[in-house]
Amino acid sequence: MATQTQIPVADQRAPVIEPGHNFSTIGEKVSNIVLRRPISLGWVLGFLIMFSGMNMLLFALGYLFLKGTGIWGITIPIGWGFAIINFVWWIGIGHAGTLISAILCLLRQTWRNSINRFAEAMTLFAVACAGVFPLVHTGRPWLAYWMFPYPNTMNYWPQFRSPLIWDVFAVSTYFTISLVFWFVGLIPDFATMRDRAEHPLTRGVYGILAMGWRGSARHWHRYETAYLLLAGLATPLVLSVHTVVSFDFSISIVPGWHTTIFPPYFVAGAIYSGFAMVLCLAIPIRAIYGLEDFITMRHLENSGKVMLATGLIVAYGYGIEAFMGWYSGNKFDSFLLWNRLHGPYAFWYMSLLASNIVIPQLLWIKKFRTSTFWLWVISLVVLVGMWLERFIIIVVSLQRDFLNSSWGMYYPTKWDWMTYLGTIGMFLTAMWLFVRILPMVSISELRTLLPEAHVKETEEVAQ
Amino acid sequence: MNDASVYGLMAEFDSPQQLLDAANEAHKAGYKKMDAYSPFPIEGLADAIGFHKDMVPFVTLVGGIIGGLSGYLLQYYVHVISYPLNIGGRPFHSWPSFIIVTFEMTILFAGLSAVFGMLALNGLPMPYHPVFNVPEFTKASESKFFLVVFASDPNYDDADTRAFLKGLTPRAISEVPA
């Protein structure tokens, strides 16, 4: 009887794919967005706006290279300003893609199959945006290759005991592995695109990218092994990246940074903001490109639940920070807590608590979780909140540390804002191009979800 | 009986189940050199055509070991042999600081080995392959399922194999020119 009552409960959930699809309609629907759909005026206008944002970034960076980091608001004691805030923010956003593709793959969450491609692309673009900041923050970015170990005439080596060098390895490994993971997932879809393309040039380009993929059973077998291994390797990797980023802070002795809660708290925050960005982009894209059949309410609701769970971990992190400020008995730590609550940035700390802890509690209510409008609003609020979190961690800790003779304030300049907004332009320019050039939903993985795709091993049954 | 201008015989099926059954039948009938093509991975199909040796995990393991060792040894060389630097009296061989780069290098090398190993073992990129000569084969990335018995199989015989494939009730049978 128990199973009989359970079935209707399971049926109440939205399906992963809407009924009525077969192997060819999936390929048609997804590839037609790229191959058949004409370019709309809205796309062109949006692209122009985003592209001018990206050019603003290039302009800001050009002036930076000419003048140096003095054009930014950074000064002693706040030597880490927007550059590091934005680096941590972007890299955090970049966590959702690999989490969805790797961890949810290992956990056999089939709902990941229609959002992983898109989230992985988002990851790559976000990590690319993140990479800009530490590079230009070095002041002399043309010497950035000094961070890599190579034999040189200066008889010089990087300092491997420094968390900043760990960062170089963690972020570059993460970008590389995310890129190959994404590309491997695309190979069978490139073959579908090649076979569906009409124009010889398009067919040629996708053909080169597909590398002669023909769907052989031997190839599929090795492919699936490699994909699973990559998922297994990327799972600890995704958790390690933000852990290493948090070491940049926690290895130091600055109050508010020197704490052991940082690695898990940073990782949870990263996934939190990453899922917020997934929702923020997926909701408009599925509406514009008619992908409601594949990115269903189930996906959106599950992403909302992940946000709620990671948001609570983040809230726990804030709680522990406040508790340790009091419990440690360290006057610098307790002053930091006082300074967050009553100092010059108290308004922003309160906004942070509101947007990261209070407002997302609406996700407990199913009505908000299943409304695209509210999910979109909450995801925007979380993105702002997570940016504020990094602002508070970096600026408020540095602003008033051990000696009051060295206290100061941080005022970002227009160049800081132009660089930050410029990376958003760069990110969205890349997303804009992505949706028109590549299949944004994994065609071959979606096909495996159809009931027709399941086979019975007749051989073994007969024996 | 084998004609050098023929690569094999291709049977087209409508569903993954039919393809899997056909592959099992062909294997039972003694065909060893064949391949099955599908738009998505089908469980048990590789077994059915007699493919058991998947070297990808081994390649990945070797890559991971090389990456981890080279990461650790590089740091040891830099901080103990080539450029020892005393920082706060810590030992030159301060291994806890070396763990992160070692870990990242392990993942990087293992991941790249998995991907490039998979491509190399699959013989990709391969811009030309005889199966693409069959016009219907464009559906192999779409909605159709194909079984090809290669002419190089010792049991291959143009007429007999064709008759055997016909017995599997495919949608169509076509000859794959070499």
Global outline of chain A: globular
**Fraction of residues in β-strands of chain A:** under 5%
Biggest interface between protein chains, with counts per chain? Answer: A-B, 68 and 72 residues
Query: Count the strands of chain A?
Result: 0
Question: How much helicity do the residues of chain A have?
Answer: over 70%
Q: How many domains of chain A, as an integer?
A: 1
> What's the assembly state of these chains?
heterodimer
Averaged pLDDT of chain B, please?
85
**Hey, roughly how much beta strand do the residues of chain B contain?**
5-15%
CATH topology of chain A: Formate dehydrogenase/DMSO reductase fold
Biggest pleated sheet of chain A: none
What's the architecture of chain A in CATH terms?
A: Up-down Bundle
Helix content of chain B: 40-55%
Protein model, in words:
The complex is a heterodimer of chains A (463) and B (178). Chain A is an all-alpha fold. Chain A has a single domain (17-149, 156-452), classed as Up-down Bundle (Formate dehydrogenase/DMSO reductase fold), CATH 1.20.1630. Chain A has 18 helices and no strands. In chain A, helix 11 (297-327) crosses helix 12. Mean pLDDT of chain A is 87; it is low at 1-11 and 459-463. Chain B is built from 5 helices and 4 strands. Chain B has 2 domains: 6-52 and 128-177; 56-121, no CATH class. In chain B, helix 3 runs antiparallel to helix 4 (95-121). In chain B, 45% of the residues lie in helices and 13% in strands. Chain B has helices spanning 16-28, 45-48, 56-82, 95-121, 158-166, and strands spanning 6-13, 34-37, 145-150, 172-177. The chains are: A mainly alpha (463), B alpha+beta (178). Chains A and B meet through helix 2, helix 7, helix 9 and helix 17 of A and helix 1, strand 2, helix 2, helix 3 and helix 4 of B.
